[in-house]
Design goal:
Order of helices and strands: HEHEHEHEHEEEE
Strand order of the largest sheet: 3-2-4-1-7-8
CATH topology: Rossmann fold
Number of strands: 8
Low-confidence stretches: 5-21
CATH class: Alpha Beta
Radius of gyration: 19 Å
Structural class: alpha/beta
Strand content: 15-25%
Largest sheet: 6 strands, mixed
Number of domains: 1
CATH superfamily: Phosphoglycerate mutase-like
CATH architecture: 3-Layer(aba) Sandwich
Number of helices: 5
Length: about 190
């Protein structure tokens, strides 16, 4: 059977499309800023826990870390503290905040990442504002090897139930790579 130029061209277009569909954007992960002390945690009020004055200042500082050309989308959990952490960046970039269940629910992470690779390409970046007990799982699903946990700031909770990150002043970057298998160099943690 003879393969024609048109068949080769069609196959090449399919391959290029498949690669483009699975290209991963650069992902930045940030924990919500500091919470107000003394907030009542009962009766479902934790979701509405606001930022402290230090947290509001940190949210403004976070906005200074990015410019309009560097971010294609802002995602946040639906908690008040996460949304308020994202708000100064949203206002600066004139970009809406999209609520993402994956920023609050580990069972939604796989579908969220699959959607990210469909919506955004390798030349784009997104930021996720999440929580101390979710960020490790977002990093793991992005391909973080277990050997990198300590260097990237992941710790096991005191009850040995959850993986956690500590502090409020880090940005984690998941670098875009052509490889499906990532290594420690594909992840960066920096202070802001």
């Amino acid at each position: 059977m003879k393969i024609t130029f048109h068949q080769i061209f069609f196959i090449a277009i399919l391959l290029i499309s498949a690669i483009a569909v699975h290209a991963q954007p650069t992902i930045y992960l940030v924990r919500h800023a500091e919470k107000l002390a003394g907030w009542p945690d009962g009766d479902g009020l934790d979701e509405f826990h606001p930022l402290s004055s230090e947290g509001a200042a940190r949210a403004k500082k976070l906005a200074g870390q990015f410019n309009a050309d560097s971010i294609a989308a802002i995602f946040s959990s639906r908690t008040t503290r996460a949304l308020h952490t994202a708000l100064p960046l949203s206002q600066k970039l004139k970009m809406p905040i999209e609520v993402a269940d994956a920023c609050m629910d580990t069972t939604a992470i796989a579908a969220f990442y699959k959607n990210l690779t469909r919506r955004f390409g390798a030349n784009q970046a997104v930021i996720l504002i999440s929580h101390s007990n979710i960020i490790p799982y977002l990093l793991i699903k992005a391909g973080l090897p277990q050997a990198c946990f300590q260097d990237i700031g992941i710790k096991v909770s005191a009850a040995n139930v959850w993986l956690l990150i500590e502090g409020y002043d880090n940005i984690w970057q998941v670098k875009k790579t052509d490889s499906h298998k990532k290594n420690c160099n594909d992840f960066v943690m920096k202070k802001y």
